[in-house]
């Protein structure tokens, strides 16, 4: 059995908790401690004491009853309270504990062991109620209780003795004052699970569910909730038990951009009784409607969302222009502030207020909407992880400050992503770093959908909000520490690598986007962009996902039994789900491609797609059966029933009338076309598939091969088990002879043509043409003072960003370039692609421009900025790219250079690509496996 002591807490966990590891002091054993909850107005400390009692019991302790009088304490007593509590103040005086370090603090605590009058005390004193609660949850976490002990079934492990060092320490103040989550799009997980499994008596999301949400928020040190607000859910204030519960947990209640003044319009505004929700026609009715809620929430710790949108998540009714909307909003905000002051009995400036600049609300603000300086400006991402706006230097002076509303889950155009949490941690760090650096530090709220399966990403966001120092650490290190906390140090590194590969593979296309259709209006699936030519890009993606799933399954086989459910929820289901959907879609597209080639393997690919779909169904059923059915109804593999998730119609093809074997795109290599091309001096590999036209078992062997080439197999058999094909790899050693490779398939010779080109003499570090294409990662450039490297970000695991403080410039002569050297061997027309991330200008008065020059040519200006919801923006967010292209009618072979100078701050380059005429089309470069 293990022994829990804070004195041996890892430095990594201490960092995540915002602590320093104290010097070792005498042990204080908590195995049989009493818990004293110093009385407060709402009973928050008692809830914290009850939580700690459960945690100690789960660890194998036998805590005594929770008491409120120290005379009822046993020989060891854990005292939980705020610095304002007379009980706490008296004990602190008697024990010589100085509480001044947390005086006037926000959500801070002191924890210290002491001996007074023969009793041992562990004093947990918060500067406020949440500070005391965080002191409790941090203690539990340090003793081995994961924040996800209930929500992800990370069962605490029992121990013989529970003890800590008694040394005192003081917690840090949070970096961001208000840190919260938005429960949203709950229709396919949280609400049906709550209604049918967790709280069937209520039949909806109610106090029982919110109590679990609030407890999780405590453990993650979040303090603000935007409650579930879809029409399937009971409005938060519609259940009389919700608001008092929030007060007991000291949770700040707010509401989204669509719900001003804490009102859930979709469920609470009855048009039959109240009329249309149109401020231009019935302003007083709407003001009275808001007044009802403000009266009801008097005394509730709340953050009131200001402004006005439509009845649900759309523009306000009754106006159609930005100018008209701006005028209405100024009137609305003025009335809302007067209402708050009148109803709450205090100046409006003392009431936390928020203007969420979402879609047309940002457009109205940018068009000149005047807001009082004490209203917090909340900037939003574009629903796909890229902040649409940052505070200007003047806006940073506003006393109301700024904040961020960010999405990890989204319903809407151009496509939903409601199923798996695949936003890359490096993107979260980058965008929230931009927010932090431009002083958006008052409130951060993240859309977590149904909470599951976005557990890790939600914690990462909230950890960054609590301790902004984490912005300077690699996402991998945070992820590794997270996995160590759930599964132990031994497996943490390999699990972190699996999940980073999972995020990498989703970077160029999220699983939900693999149907290549769009929503609103819903479009049917389209052929995948990964199957544009010979199918090899799709094959590589399937293989990468299958390898990842195999690796995750191998780790899962080593995970102890008490962590099996947790591993399935946090790792295995997301990995297998993404792999399964990609395999199903891409295999079906390959089947159609290969049927056109009249390959016998076409039906085998249909069978593989069918098996992948069956695997998704089985995996989802397994998820909903975990922990004895605890999560039944939580996981839905087809949210909103979009075409990408639907089981396809399964095609079938009759055997081809052609006979014999073939390789390549069209079934034969012809002359100098479709030749596998290598570069002399550069070892490389190329895929080769040998296949049958008819479903007949046929032996094959290598009949002749040049000295510089080798094949991954010298012989084999095309048979039913392999789909009457064999995928091979042709290796070039970089120095030997290259020429045709002859295979004998049955009695038929099959020739694979190959050649090697001679590169020009170039400087070291020069990129060389390969298959009529050159890809130059951003961080392979030589760059000057205008640029900074952003590790881990983008398709190449590193991006180049124009500095955020860079002034806008009129010409390239004012800046310093990033330059890439490259060399071509083919004389042809070409396109030069500058591939950036689809970030947005720092403020709307700017563009997102760069000047580019090829060799000694003229500078040309390109602008990567997009208009909201334009077709170009849609393509950008679905691909995680913003591409600007320079067409080149002719391009000479030899050495070249491309230079790029940023003209606006924040432009973030992923890579530069030169694509020569005749190159096979690719959807995206594969993320490298090695990290």
Automatic annotation (TrEMBL):
Pfam families according to UniProt: GH115_C, Glyco_hydro_115
Record-given protein name: Gylcosyl hydrolase 115 C-terminal domain-containing protein
UniProt keywords, alphabetically: Hydrolase, Signal
Entry coiled-coil feature ranges: none
Gene Ontology terms: biological process: carbohydrate metabolic process
Signal peptide segment: 1-25
Gene3D superfamilies for this protein: 1.20.58.2150, 2.60.120.1620, Chitobiase/beta-hexosaminidase domain 2-like, Glycosyl hydrolase family 115
PANTHER family according to UniProt: GYLCOSYL HYDROLASE 115 C-TERMINAL DOMAIN-CONTAINING PROTEIN, PTHR37842
Domain annotation Gylcosyl hydrolase 115 C-terminal: ranges: 781-924
Keyword Ligase: no
InterPro entries in the record: GH115, GH115_C, GH115_sf, Hex-like_dom2
GO molecular function, one term: hydrolase activity
